[in-house]
Every structure is written in C-alpha cells, then in structure tokens.
Amino acid sequence: MRERVRGFLNAGSLVTAVFLGVCLVCVLEVQGKDKEKGIVASLRDGKLERSEQNNWMQLGTGQEVLRGDRLRTDTTAVAIIEFPAVGRFVMGPSSHVELGKDPRDFRTKIERGALWLQSSLPKGSKTSITTSLATAGIRGTAFSMVFGEGEKLVCICTCSGDVEVSLKDGRTIRVAKGEYLAVPENEPAPVKAQTSLPLLEKRGTVFDFCFNCHSVGGKGTLKQGGK
Prior knowledge:
Elements: H1 2-36, E1 37-44, E2 48-52, E3 55-59, E4 64-66, E5 70-73, E6 78-83, E7 87-91, E8 96-98, E9 105-119, E10 126-130, E11 134-139, E12 143-148, E13 153-160, E14 162-167, E15 172-176, E16 179-184, E17 194-195, H2 197-200
Parallel strand pairs: 9-10
Antiparallel strand pairs: 1-4, 1-6, 2-3, 2-5, 5-8, 6-7, 7-9, 8-9, 9-12, 10-11, 11-14, 12-13, 13-16, 14-15, 16-17
C-alpha cells in the first residue's frame, strides 16, 4: 500500500510539474503577444483613425493598435501610441503613418505630417521611420522627430541619442543630439547635419511645435520629463 501511495504521489507531482510548465509557457506566450501590441496612451483634441478593410474607423484612448496598422490624425489631433518593445510614438496633426511589422526591425512609414519617437529598444533590435526622401534609423535609446511637407521636404531632428539618416543617393548622415537634417526633394541634400539651436531660440519657425518639448529661448534645453 505504501508503495502504491508513494507511486501515486510521485505521479501527482509529475502531473503538477507538467501543469505548471504548461501554465508558464502560456503566460510567456501571452506576454509575448502583449509586447506585439500597442496602445493609444493619449489622444488630445481631434480624431485618430485606423484603416480597416478600406474604411477608416475611429480609435480612442486605451484601445489597442497592432503592428502594420495604418493610422491617421485629423487637423487638430495629437495621438500618443506606445509599443512596449519599441517605444513611444507621437503623431502630430494631419499625419498619416503605417506602423512597423517586425518587432526586431520596426520600420514605420510616414506619408505626411510629423512623427516623434522616444525609443526604448531591447538589445539587438532597431527601428526606423521612412519617408519618400529619407530613412531615419535608430538603435538603442533616442528621442527624435521626423516631419515633412508631403513629398517636397523631410526634416529629421534629434533631442537625445543618435540617428542615422539614409538618403536616396546611398549616403548615410549622422544626426546627433541637438542637430537636424533637412532633405529637400529637388535640391542636393546637405553633407552633414546642422545645429538646431538657432531655430529653437525663436518662434515663427518651422520648429514651432518643438516647443512642446523644449524651453523657449532655453538654448535647446528639454522641458522637465523630456529625454
């Protein structure tokens, strides 16, 4: 009898161990899937919409977004989208973007408007923001913005970290903290990035919306909470 009881207990322990193992796998799978999803963390003014079967459906704060989603904002909206394994995106007004699909190489496309990215990439991962004129590539941690006037001009500026911009002619230009690179459609692109400070010292420039992050007349100083 004792042997039978001992055998039963051993079998029960084995079943328990298998059950716990299955549960652990399920938890890890759920966590992995959660990391593949993003969320609308904030929506200020206006509307944020997602393309679903050729129709545009409105999204609200707290709703999920998925890799590969096409999103757009109206003329007044500012939307913050967070992806755990990528970082935080901020879509400016009148913006149209297509989110990346591969979490290890998260390539987001911007057709128009402005897109900020505060990246928090795990080791070995990378992300990029692509326009018709250039691609801004990021590894590690950086805080950068890409904006354009349709297909006529694209500008990449960096608040922290380093960004590598790949141009259509095959050149790669580094845009470091406090610098920007403006790439026009029908003119030669600059050979290197320029300092953003003169533009951040005054209003009435194309960088006006940067004062959401920077102190006015603060020599490029980020506001509290900026990185």
